[in-house]
Amino acid sequence: TASDLRRRLEVEGYVVTKRTVERDLQALSVIFPLMLDERSRPYGWSWHQDAPAFDLPGLSNSEALTLLLAREHLSDLLPAATLAQLRSHFRMAEIKLASHGGADWMDKVRVIPAAQPLLAPRIEASIQATINDALLLGRQVRVAYRKRDAETDESYPIHPLGLVQRGQVLYLVCTIKNYPQLRLLALHRIQAAATLEQALTVPADFSLDGYIRSGAFGWLPGESIHLEAAFTEEVAAHLEETPLAEDQILSALPDGRVKVSATVRETLQLRWWLQGFGDAVEVLSPTALRQQQAETARRLANRYNRGEA
Prior knowledge:
The protein is an alpha+beta fold.
């Protein structure tokens, strides 16, 4: 709405009246594909959904190729609502390539995920837009949230503090009502959202990076360790070009395997990564990590042995 745009302009340092915004929108709609939705008050303005994006200066061929490659990479990672916001830019890249004989480029490039691909959960575009606006404007939001396996929604005001994409799931870091405890809400479980006029309250000393480092997303905070592990030669080959750390050292072992030494953080993510190689890796040190991996292998072997019996 014109009021929304006026508030956004004010955040950017441009103080104008709502009437000025309305006059400018009317004038700009003659030049650009702007649409006015008059179905209900307050009326809302939007860029025409099918209108191509434009930028100054225009995209180069290389930039257009990079943008479409990014689309392929992000298609299974980001929620559909997030990708939809970039639709016009992707279309602009397609038009750019088509005009220079590169329309068949997408038949010549593929993106293969390094891990098992998962489909991103569906997020309502209007809900994500409301959350994004609230973060930009520093406003509270009233949400209807449905917990996992719950049959009904809970409604309450929240103070949105940041968005974190972990794998295919987009999380909102926030506080609820007037409680200071930080909470995580999965955006796809928000059933409804409405921006409130009240300004949000940011907890003292809050840092999004600090919150992540605290282990809030299931990864352990992680102390630095000197990892030594023996990999099969085939598995170790990819670490030559994509090392674990700057100080990584690869050395041949008498049995034909390759010892990988590197300083890394001991996190749950590291443990899962090592376990994903199965018997193609053996942790040599530190001792605690080696024992943990060995115990996991014993439990797994026992489970399969019981299944055979």
